[in-house]
Amino acid sequence: MKAPLALIVLLLLLLWQGVHMLAGPDALAPPLQTIAYLGAQLPTPEFQAHILATGSAFALAVAIAIAGGLAIGLATGLSQTATEVVEPLLLAGNSIPKIALYPIVLLLFGIGMPAKVAFGAIHGVIPVAIFTMSACRNIAPVLLKSAAVMRLSRLDRIGSILLPAALPEIVTGLRMGFSLTLIGTVLGEMFGAQSGLGYLLMTAIGLQNTQVIMAVTLLLVVFAAGVSTALLAYERRLRSRT
Amino acid sequence: MAAPHVSMRGVTRVFPTQKGALHALGPVDLDLRKGEFFAVVGPSGCGKSTLLEMIAGLAPPSAGTVEFEGRAIGSDVPDGVGVVFQENACFPWLNVADNITFGLRRLPVAKDEVARRLDYALGLMGLRDFAAAYPAQLSGGMRQRVCIARTLVTQPRLILLDEPFGALDQQTRLLMGDELLNLWRATGATVLLITHALDEAAMLADRVAVMSSRPGCILEIIETGWSADRDSRIVSDPAFGAVTGKLWGLLRDQSLNALGPAA
Ligand SMILES: Nc1ncnc2c1ncn2[C@@H]1O[C@H](COP(=O)(O)OP(=O)(O)O)[C@@H](O)[C@H]1O
Ligand SMILES: [Mg+2]
After folding, report:
1. Do B89 and A240 touch (CB under 8 A)?
2. Which of A42, A115, A158, B90 is the residue whose CA sits 20 to 30 A from A10?
């Protein structure tokens, strides 16, 4: 697992260098220069303020998306009728381009932190809910019968049987929810904020500052890929037991 | 005569389906004596699992009553009943030891007693080397032994087994049968074993009920007359041949029925 990952990273860096050489320095800053620039920027208070703005908005958005998605998914997945009613709604909601809701989010929350959080959360909540619901529906009936024979209370049944049995599929939903919430939060910052990495990207585009654009993009890619890979590894470990 | 441990009167089960009502079972009248080893044989689809689920309190009868220890079974599984299902019912996220003690840890049993019973069950089921393994690492037969161990540690007074050895080869089934007999003698529990294997029923049980094809009714109950210290070597006893022969005589027509008019 370790060796191929290093190889992929190396290939991506080479590809980046190649595109830089083909397209010229005005289009794309080269990798080494970008890494050096990012290294220099990271300790500065201005850059850290942007990271903190994005980080706190994202953390809040992801917490809301996960809590909301789990609640909706569990509440509907546990009942046949609720599933039949809510599933089409969730699937429809999933297919709406969230950007179309952006004006409404801005109208409701105004420019700033609440809008970013809301925009991030609406991206993530639906996949978490859909995967949680389907995970509950897919539990082998014999596990629930076993819980009944052991006379588990309702709460114990949810905590000790339902959640662990559904966990591998729920983690898939969390992984999706995580990436989409990050997209939503950064998108939200691009148009409706005065701080954060998305805002920084937008101003850099206006100034044609390729160094800043590449540095911020690199930071986001490393963070997203890192967390996603860790979640995938966790998911694989869970699935190897089923 | 002592009061029956389990008593069924006029028990019927009808499933509502898209194509109308499906009469799966009954009416069944059946008494299980306290401490006996009782087996039920019948063609597949005749309602054996349905019968077991109603005795366990996992599903209510459409008509009739089921009593356990003199009390009507409501919508919950009564205390003192253990079930081993046909399918693999191990919890895949728990290791063997945690699977076995899952129900036990929820009972008012002291920690050292939990450990003692776990150790006993691991030894009895030959799982001592696998206490830390996860179910996915085990064979089908070992998983079924985990489920049997999980049931026996709670010391149920009534043990219901639904074709527990269905997935095992013949030799393993005979050996598991011996272990089941040891278990039954050690605990004094009433055992209800559902099986489609005539020899298994004939070898293990004090009494064997033969069911008709769907809707399943009890055609006859045969007393085997074995002594309590029997084991799998009984299969070489001439009386064993007589019992299986009698069972097959009753079941042959029913099995042909269950195969459908084409057969
Ligand atoms: N939930 C259900 N809904 C509709 N029909 C069912 C249901 N459960 C079982 N049946 C039907 O009832 C009959 C008896 O089933 P079952 O008790 O599982 O048989 P057995 O265990 O003897 O093979 C079968 O024909 C089966 O298809
Ligand atoms: Mg069955």
Report:
1. no
2. A42
